[in-house]
Amino acid sequence: MTTEHEQHPADPDRATAQHPADPDRATAQHSSGFSRRGLLGAGLAAAGAGVGAAVGIAGAAAATGVNPLAAATNGDESLDLSQQHPFYATAAGQPQGGIRTVPQRHCVFMTFDLSTSVATDLQVLLARWSAAIAQLQAGKTVGSVEPAHGNGVGADTGEALDLGPASLTVTVGLGPGVFDERFGLADKRPAHLAAIPTLPSDNLDEQLTGGDLSLQACADDPQVAYHAVRDLARMARGTATVRWTVLGFGRASAGPSQSTPRNLMGFKDGTRNVTTDDEFDRFVWVDQPGDGAAWMRGGTYQVVRKIRMNLETWDADVVSDQQRVFGRTKIDGAPLSGGSEHTTPDFHAAHGDGTTKIDARSHIALAAHEANGGVKILRRGYNYTDGLNQYGQLDAGLLFAAYMNDPEHFERLQRKLGASDRLNEYVSHIGSAVFAVPPAPRKGSYIAEQLFR
Amino acid sequence: MTTEHEQHPADPDRATAQHPADPDRATAQHSSGFSRRGLLGAGLAAAGAGVGAAVGIAGAAAATGVNPLAAATNGDESLDLSQQHPFYATAAGQPQGGIRTVPQRHCVFMTFDLSTSVATDLQVLLARWSAAIAQLQAGKTVGSVEPAHGNGVGADTGEALDLGPASLTVTVGLGPGVFDERFGLADKRPAHLAAIPTLPSDNLDEQLTGGDLSLQACADDPQVAYHAVRDLARMARGTATVRWTVLGFGRASAGPSQSTPRNLMGFKDGTRNVTTDDEFDRFVWVDQPGDGAAWMRGGTYQVVRKIRMNLETWDADVVSDQQRVFGRTKIDGAPLSGGSEHTTPDFHAAHGDGTTKIDARSHIALAAHEANGGVKILRRGYNYTDGLNQYGQLDAGLLFAAYMNDPEHFERLQRKLGASDRLNEYVSHIGSAVFAVPPAPRKGSYIAEQLFR
Fold this sequence. Notes:
The structure is a homodimer of 453-residue chains. By secondary structure, the first copy, chain A, is α+β, with helices and mostly antiparallel strands. Chain A contains eleven helices and ten strands. In chain A, strands 6, 7, 8, 9 and 10 form a five-stranded antiparallel sheet that branches. In chain A, a hairpin with a 5-residue loop joins strand 8 (382-388) and strand 9. Chains A and B meet through strand 1, helix 6, strand 5, helix 9 and strand 8 of A and strand 1, helix 6, strand 5, helix 9 and strand 8 of B. Strand 1 of chain A pairs antiparallel with strand 1 of chain B.
């Protein structure tokens, strides 16, 4: 494998410029809901009410459009692990959790290969998963931990007993394989779902690519997230086998008064992310799912990349060069063209000698929507660490997860970054996959039920 | 490698029976300090005052002997990430943090091989580490993130900026190698420090054993713990190289009103742990360090084992058998002889047919202090997960860390468990190391300074 020029898309710059004083930004970052035009009010209010008394604070907050986490994490940095997010939608086309949800502190991502070629097996799995996720997000087990007198195998492995919901969300994705010749679902393939082509600087490990299904479990307690994926994987036995997994962590950014989280390179990551209702509608939620794919309306696409960072090389670099690579200052995250973190970068600002203050091959210059036809994607990444590699060096990086209404938007960006980004010297894309993420089901239904009709 | 009979020491039973209503237990679990006879009052009060205004709530709480975490986690399950633990001792023989400290939610453990054979190199490293740990535990960086105009390599990698102290403690240990022929320190070797011998059912991976130095960084934020070890490892360059590492997580047990945390087998872990002042003095703190090792008085020994759990096999077992293996019920953690979690197990109670209710080869029967000459060790373990193994199965288990005033106590216990424990079918000890843990230094000094005099 050649690793001389690697790539990566996932850091302090990608999307739009939202000033902290911008009222849109404040509103959007405090909403854990979604914004499908015309559905907003009724949908959220009903979502809060629909789950009943057990929802408590989180439900009440969701009903008013206020993110319960924001209240918990703002200012005092404390965290309330009794918070929960409802699973079921109360109107068609509402998205699943874990996309616009304010990022929780931990994430377990796992993909699966279907070992069946019978569509009803997949259907049953999605139905079982949906019922189980609804339980898990409410802080409950997926079934009995101690079946009658212990004379049976437990339906739930038990390690999350008493830990509470911890803001868990589990997001389910369907890979391109679901629509191949096996299941007779080819004519329902979402318009933009196809395996990600080879991109410049790709350094993929085959064992960390693809999958027919994906689970993204995020929670404020790692044991709650791990338990969810473990027990859902267990439920898939006989229908799907585990393919690859990444465990991530990160401090949430819960609003303008909370600082932007940092990646393991020490730089702020997420300054110019998708935040407003309008941006979500334009760039994230699927409005035109394609012929036969009406079941995807209100859904989105998930692109996941496991991006290894060569931390020991990075740590030996002088900070002025690190800043040139990103195009921002390290501590404040201000663009090198001046101002503070949320100042819009001026890619034309130049020094006396005519060189631009922000290097044209810096990460923020190449990734900026201004340089990419206005395209933005929602980034929702986590840091990961796998301990040490075979050379005794830190093995760590970024679990890059992004949501968009057309994966081509990611590909376009990464083609450019993979070819030219100064960051390529320090990162390596080793994992990759794409999934269609259907909207949330209504109570009594399950994820993607409409796909099987 | 044969794995038919593996072993493990690390779970729902090991030490003393402490009833929740026992006043000793309530007191001890709410103390994050220590209990060297005669030092307690002055030491803790001074520790709180010594760190100055920056200590805030945590310092004030420590000064009164009340664990600040208990207040934060009791009842509402919320967590205050602005809490901090002071690093420096204010009297001789006070222990380092991370031993009696109420377990934080995350842990990064790492060992190092010394690449120097010059004692002053080791001395300088311990001095630098001590100064850095004092900074880190106060929520500060170990040096400049952006040196003058960025024209230099950052002293701190920056990813924990603004994250606060998050109750960080970093515990430093010295392995047997420090006292070999290299450094001229052989005559100062602590009485009981020697490599752990091969024990029954050992299935060790050479790459996960030993080390001349250890760091155990625990915090309520994983990025804070990771940053600490990363930057301390960076500081060791040229003097020591990284050997092995494990990243752990777990929900803290902060007192009688907080439930006992569960391991990944779904069972409560830590019900009969060392808790009282008297037990700490008898079983944990070193009172007789040996000839030439006066520098260890008030310290302790750290035994660390990486214990893999065969979770997929375990998950397929009927719960009644799982309960027989542990000797306790799964949900409540009550001994199979009856009662509730904190009821003292009755190892003689029998069914009508004469068989004991608690199997003689169950984990709690073999590990009980009643069956081991009254010996107890302090367990302070974390769950870990390494993703998937080469068979696509969950690769996870327990980062077992225990503290005791003689590692032979662990060896004695593990010899028995490794030979007979029913749990051996489901676990495998793959990593192992032992370290002498000196007491905390006073301000102006550093860890183990006395060793070099």
